[in-house]
Amino acid sequence: MTHLPESRAGSGHGTGPADGPPAAPGPAVRIGFFQFAPGARSARENIAAIRAALDGVRDAVIVLPEFFLGAYRTPGERFPADGLADLLRPLTEAAALRRLRLVGSLPVRCSRGWVNRAVAIGPDGPRPVHDKVRLFGAERAALTAGTAGHRVVDVAGLPCTVQICMDVADPGPTRAAAAEGAAAVLSPSAVSVDLLRILHRARAVENQVVSVFCNRYGTDPDGTVYLGRSAVFLPDGTDASAPADADALVLHPLRPGLLHAWSEARRDLIGAPPPPPRLPGRA
């Protein structure tokens, strides 16, 4: 598996100003993704693979791909909402032991039918944080669209919004969430083309937020080949990206000084409120 070194603000593959103001004293929030190829494994095999990949990782917010427990286009397993806590218990235990928050999406049966639901997995188990709104392709016939374009949720003390895959194609929800104080966009995804990388870079720059795009790679049972190239996009246009064809765990430190500077930029740009004092995360 590829472990990219923790990048610094101002490094990566984009253009833009250097690191910005010096970081204020205090611990950094580590945010990133685990890119992998879940399509050929069962749900429990994927859970074991995630636990193994995160062995030794502590104090981080990690985004997983869309439908991270199996194939995307032809999911072999779907999950009742009331069974997620038991299913995901091994990841809950890892989150509690290592102070992790994991965010990914699954096909979930709830009171509204089948939805593409993002959950944040923390020490208290999985918590629903978003249902995909902009359903794509075969999803339109198989799933019910979410009703809320955005929410601002606390993930390990960081105000975030979750946008699943093509949700980020609509600029409105990210802008609205940023105006309400969101500092990061977390985006479980499953795509074969470069479009979402372009859109995530734009969302990061135009809203002065960190945008985390976590894609899968590999080939689904129906022959669909996925792009990989997951990335953490920063407000200055730079990024920390994964390769196209390998497991990759990428974590980026968000230092308090930079979070504050980006918050000030959001206030100037879109009138976002100042950040609240950082509290222990709930998600």
Structure description:
- It is a single chain.
- By secondary structure, the chain is of the alpha/beta class.
- 23% of the residues lie in helices and 28% in strands.
- The chain is built from seven helices and 16 strands.
- Strands 1, 2, 3, 4, 5, 6, 7 and 16 form an eight-stranded mixed beta sheet that branches. A six-stranded mixed beta sheet has the order 8-9-10-11-14-15, with helices on one face.
- Strand 12 and strand 13 form a beta hairpin.
- The longest helix has 15 residues.
- It is globular, with a radius of gyration of 17 Å.
- Keywords: Hydrolase.
- Pfam families: CN_hydrolase (PF00795).
Separation, N- and C-terminal Cα atoms? 27 Å
N to C succession of SSEs: EEHEEHHEEEHEEHEHEEEEEEH
Number of discrete helical segments: 7
* Strand portion: 25-35%
Q: Looking at the structure, what is the overall shape?
A: globular
Structural class: alpha/beta
Helix content: 10-25%
Which stretches of 5+ consecutive residues score pLDDT under 50? 7-25
Largest sheet: 8 strands, mixed
Average residue pLDDT: 89
Please give the radius of gyration in angstroms.
17 Å
Query: Count the strands?
Result: 16
Provide a quick synopsis of the model.
By secondary structure, the protein is α/β, with parallel strands linked by helices. The protein is 23% helix and 28% strand.
